[in-house]
Amino acid sequence: MQEAQIILARNDYDILMLLLKSGKSHNTFNRNDAEELHKELKRAKLVASEDLPPDIVRLNSAVTIKDAQKGEIIKLTVVTPGKTNIKQKKISILSPIGTALIGFGVGQQISWMVPAGKRTFTILEVVNTALEKELPSESAL
């Protein structure tokens, strides 16, 4: 849905492809969302984790976004499905907003279809602290 180039760390790409191939994604979101994520992944520019710019959204990023329609500021963390916790504002990478944000950076606007309809968000801040160095086992996902 978004035409700008996205940048992904190779290990994040591997994790996302593992999630899609394992079928675990089908419990979290529908087939259309899975296809959209797969399209995004296919066109991504892949880089080593250490070469990923620090303001790019990746797995475990703490992100502050602004909803263009409502003007609302939203803070969330993008995680794998097993770590999702709505009360802690940890959203799955496989959710529509998680899929929309991955690979984009501070200052970029993203338009994406979410359950409430098409929304536009601006990424205000990205904090990447506890970055995963290795691909977790499938059971950890």
Short description:
With 141 residues, the protein is α/β, with parallel strands linked by helices. 25% of the residues lie in helices and 28% in strands.
How many β-strand runs? 7
CATH superfamily, called what? Transcription elongation factor, GreA/GreB, C-terminal domain
Strand content: 25-35%
Q: What average pLDDT do the residues reach?
A: 84
How many H/I helical runs?
A: 4
Cα distance spanning the termini: 26 Å
Largest sheet report: 5 strands, mixed
Specify the structural class: alpha/beta
Radius of gyration: 14 Å
The parts where pLDDT drops under 50 for at least 5 residues are: 132-139
Number of domains: 1
Helix content: 10-25%
CATH level-two architecture: Roll
Task: Choose one word for the global shape.
Answer: globular
Element pattern in H and E: EHHHEEEEHEE
3D architecture notes:
This protein is of the alpha/beta class and 141 residues long. It has one domain: Roll (Chitinase A, domain 3). Helix content is 25%, strand content 28%. It has four helices and seven strands. The chain has helices at 10-22, 25-28, 31-42, 96-101, and strands at 7-9, 45-47, 62-67, 73-79, 90-92, 109-114, 117-127. The strands form two sheets. A five-stranded mixed beta sheet has the order 5-4-3-7-6. The chain has a two-stranded parallel sheet with strand order 1-2. The model is unreliable at 132-139 (pLDDT under 50).
